Amino acid sequence: MQKAILVILSFGLIVMLGVGISLLVSSMRGPSTALELPPIPVKEEPPDENNTFTVPLYFLSSDHRLLVKERRTLVLSGRLEDRLETLVKALIDGPSARNLLPTIPEGTRLQSLFWDEAQKCVVLSLSREFIDSRPGHALAEWASIYSLVNTLADHDSAIQTVQILVEGELVEDDLLWDLTEPLAPDKTFVFYDSAESLLNPGQ
Amino acid sequence: MMPNSILRNTFLWLLVVSVLLLSGGPIVAVQRWDSLTSPKPIAEALPPDYIPATDLCKALGSSWNWDPLLGRFEIILPGEAKLVLLVDSRVATLGNQVFRLSQPVRFVQNRLAIPRSIIVDVLEPILGYSIQLPTPQPEPTPLLSQPLPTPAIDFEPEISPLAPWTAPRAESEQSIQPLRSSSGQIVVVIDPGHGGQDMGSVGTGTTSEAEVVLTVAKLCEEMIQNAFEIDVSLTRREQTDIPIVDRVTFANSSEACAFVSLHAGGLFDPAMSLPSVLYQAPPANEALSLDSRSLDPSSLRSRFVPWQLGSALWFQQSRDLAATLHNALKTAYADLSGIGTVSFEEGPRSGRLAVLSGLLMPGAVVELGSLTNVEHEQILHSQGFQSRIAETLSLAVGNWVYRQEGRPIRESLVP
Fold first, then answer.
1. B406 to chain A, minimum CA–CA distance in Å?
2. Is the ipTM of this complex over 0.85?
3. pTM for this predicted structure
């Protein structure tokens, strides 16, 4: 019995010695210089069994200056077009947070949406209310346009540009903003969702 | 028959050797294998106007926090103040102060890169002392990237102003707008937005954007022409609807040196008012930038210029004009306290604006205020404020033009 205990103890000692040596060797290699910071994670959380995604939707900050991401849990399934349609409809419905503002003019409807894989461009057509019910300020137009573009581009990295049409036609004369060409996402004036507390530190 | 003790000792030694091989041995082996098979990763050099975030923190002697989920980098400044930066964003915040960086924070090869301008624009004003960055280690120049000797050429190639679609120009190389028209006049075009069936925003008191901006435009015309040697042309004088393209074409054919489009649109929050100025961003496609070194600006007036290149040629001057008008707006609202929520941005914004696309001169869009705000509708409708805002804008535009000509600026519109 004593011999068995001695053998087990010896074995344990040897294993600890081995582990110690391996740690020593790895520490001698020095810290990794290639990685300074962890990489940016995938923006959307993976779906669960019911195809439920947590996705960012861009809405307007209360001071009307920044687009702010609101994370929303949505059921997204089927083709890419179907998933993008769900996102646009969620944008049209407006934000859940009370301190965020909607970005799409009231009454606007999504008429159609098409994914042009060759051009890496999403083409979407909105109803006339997108123009007729807009508030009018250049920055209100900016918010409407880039909340759509940024939200769709964030959903799939293959989406490089978004072409917005109204009633199926190019908008050439009704908006201050130029929609005659597809737009790439612009996050110059975007705050991540935690930024609300920075902008309104007292709230 | 071997004795038990020898058998046990042999077993133990075998165990020792096998455990050592299993633990330390493979690591050494993998290291050697790695060094033979996979070359060291080639680190992409940061652009010269960027610095690694860690270098900046070392120079400041600061610690930092990094939230990879939000792409948020916090630099802990003295006094536990946190300067917050976000990946892909040009906005930096310190408490409730918001700063705009000249370039966005970026990720380059897993390194967080911060625009170098943050030192002068944000950190040094906050900290009150100059910041010395650690000296970067020189990187050997790969042979293939060394410049090749320039072949001697004995002819001057004929360069068409429209032929060379090259990289964007440095700001110092921006072309200079010819100030005077071919008849020797200095012309400014003011564009009252909307008109005709398109009334623009309409306030609760039925004041329309088209009416307000037309009144202010006419006042500006009169004030600028009286105080400065500048001719002013309006894109419309009546309540008529004019297509955007025609407004731009009118300004181009007037050979104007500046274009100002007036608006007073509403916001998604009707309680707010956000007087703003916008100017045209350079084209997203860098290949569309025109090489100004081969340009004679006056020649553009008689040549075809691709529509979207127009305003991009005067990006820097447009930004300067917009900044001047932004300050003028702030002056106009300076004494109007207690009129609801008036908010100003730090400066003018750039964007892809249809009414500035195709302009062959510097241009800006001015949002005078928000008609959807009841109090602001009353103010924008009042003759007193219309005169006041026209005065500040006229002085700003006139002095901006005079500055371009090197003439002394005026303190007021009164001679």
1. 33
2. no
3. 0.63
